[in-house]
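Q: What would this chain look like folded?
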Amino acid sequence: MQVLPIQSGATTKECPPQGRLIVLTGPSGVGKGTLMQALLRRHPELYYSVSVTTRSPRLGEINGKSYYFISRNKFEQLVAQGEFLEWAEFAGNYYGTPREVVLDHIRSGKLVVLEIELEGARQIRATFPSALSIFILPPSFPELENRIRGRAQDSEDAIARRLRRAQAEIEAADEFDIQIVNDDFETALNDIEAALFG
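A: My prediction, written as structure tokens:
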């Protein structure tokens, strides 16, 4: 697996430890957030980049840990200032990855993990072709629909939008370095670990 270059032209002795950017994506409801939480519990040495969003916090979410929750106006100001590594609009809300904190951790030799939507993942691939990209797939589309409905967080219209978007996202899975099916949770988690550390 490739790593992000840190110092061009430097000798091996002069180079600091090199980090790597890892992108985890997949359709809404596929379980990527739950997989990410389990991965971070097993591997506290990973740096998880907390995204910025304009959506409202869900029950149990903590500002600064789950997401940074900000207004649309503030988000748009940060976009204009070039403060995001990537950003996208999803389900009527903005999501973005803070640029400098991610780059600082990569430069210091950390494995930096992003859990982001397809559009943002494509931006990262264009900017950082050496990033390792992992796409999480559902075992089937009906199972994905069951998971989304089981969360009981969305209206029927919102569910229909998520499912239409999920279909388009699944069709993009082959753009990514690795595809992992989240059928059995432990197996999927082990497959992610193998991709990162194997």
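The chain has one domain: 20-197.
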